[in-house]
Amino acid sequence: METATSSQNGHATEFIGRRHKMFIGGKFVEAASGKTFDSFNPATGEVLARVPEGDKQDIEVAVKAARGAFEGAAWRRMTPSDRGKLIWRLGDAIEKHADEFATIESLDNGKSVMMARYGDVALVVDMFRYMAGWTTKIEGNTIPLSVPYTPGAQYHAYTLREPVGVVGQIIPWNFPLLMAAWKLGPALAAGCTVVLKVAEQTPLSALRLAELIAEVGFPEGVVNVVTGFGETAGAALAAHPDVDKVAFTGSTEVGKLIVKAAAGNLKKLTLELGGKSPNVVFKDADMQTAIAGAADAVFFNHGQACCAGTRLFVEKSAFDKVVEGVAERAKNIKLGPGLDPSTEMGPLVSDEQMNRVCGYLDSGRKDGAKAVAGGARAGNKGYFVQPTVLTDVKPDMKVYQEEIFGPVVVAVPFSDPSEVEPAANDTVYGLAAGIWTNDISKAHTLAAKLRSGTVWINCYSIFDAALPFGGYKQSGWGREMGHAVLNNYLENKSVCVKIA
User: For residue 148, what pLDDT is reported?
Assistant: First the structure.
């Protein structure tokens, strides 16, 4: 008898082999130009699928569809309860096809199919279910007024929280399906309509998601999915005068371009950007746990995570032990194709990303950094890079200051705890941080001083739909997930009525 997993893998293969189309206005359509581009299997470098190359013309059609849906009766008059049921059904549909999505994600992105299944897809399902519950809990307030210049007058004042409107959402390639869920879930819960521009490197899981969005019954135009390049489709979406808000996840460099593009109509923005996160190990930490945690903090998802713990600060007396432990783990990580069940780390997402990471490794070597593990490309087929631990690193080196976005950690010793706060905060970023210690007072004291949106203590990379995530400084504006994310997609309206 065929198992559910093998059946879903077959569905994934069948889906990947199709003639792919974008999802606009409730219909699957070709790009207006008729152009397509290739999506590659990063484990082999071979063409995996061909998808439409959407551009400004397709964005125009998608925004018009989203505007029509936002102003139309089917979505606007849908009760919050029914909207929540739709979002919940989408979560159920994804769960039903979980193995299929994991296979698609593994082939298109390169990540381990097991990580995709029990990490990415599980979090996606939970995100939609969590957001489904918020639809009936978006409330305003009544406000007692004391107006000094109208003695004796009485007013009834209240606030409404209303959807911001048409939202352009631009997502990255490191967690393709999960980033789509992080964006779509709260926008739909708030009652917005969406044009989702997916990363050109990893378009496939979002196109499969679009099929489920159609199946579960979202009104036409509520969600539109456009495939294409950032310079054309993404730029057109960010600058479009009929888009009320843009939500972007990606590099800080591109985030700054989004800010400029949004200036035309002063559209609202949320930005989840880069990081160079400090991970601090004190000598009183449980060393076995801290070493494993420090390795996972940077090698999780091949280091292709904006919150990766890429600057490892270790108290001097424990430095050699921690570095040796992390390096040993790095050397023993099994590289391979994501669909191989024994694979612990797959390839980087693209040839471009592999070359970028290897460029940083070359830079570090020239500047005097020492690779105690890794330090180079792995093999000559696919986009594999060795998990790398660098020591003898100085604060002015590029590998110390800049986001590498690969499996590379720089390890730096410190002699006194007072050194850690300024060193950890010495970056333009402020997305995440880790602290490893058995002294809970020390942990909370340092956590309060770190300029980071998330601080993990004796753990790392713990995510939950209820836990807000976002950054300080140049790591972005606003928060993803939790109750806080709804503020990204809602307007506050004050209503004041004179009653006497």
Answer: 87
Alpha carbon of residue 473 to chain centroid? 18
CA nearest 272: which of 298, 260, 254, 299?
254
Helix ranges (DSSP H) in 283-350: 287-299, 316-332
Q: Are 227 and 200 in contact (CB under 8 A)?
A: yes
* Confidence grade of residue 4 (pLDDT, cut at 50, 70, 90): very low
What kind and span of H or E run contains 142?
Answer: strand 142-143
Cα–Cα dist 329/334, whole Å:
10
Counting other chains too, the contacts that 439-447 makes at CB distance below 8 Å and 24 or more residues apart are 439/282, 439/284, 442/282, 442/284, 442/417, 446/280, 446/417, 446/420, 446/421
Of 306, 307, 358, 403, catalytic: 306
Cα 282 from Cα 94, distance rounded (Å): 42
pTM: 0.95
pLDDT tens figures, 238-267: 999 999 999 999 999 999 999 999 999 999
Per the annotation, the verdict on 272 as an active-site residue is yes
Question: Under a CB-based contact definition with an 8 Å cutoff, are residues 338 and 346 in contact?
Answer: yes
Two tokens, residue 480: 């993803």
Catalytic: 459? no
Q: Catalytic residue, from 53, 100, 272, 315: name it.
A: 272
Domains and CATH numbers, the chain: 4-273+477-494 (3.40.605.10), 278-464 (3.40.309.10)
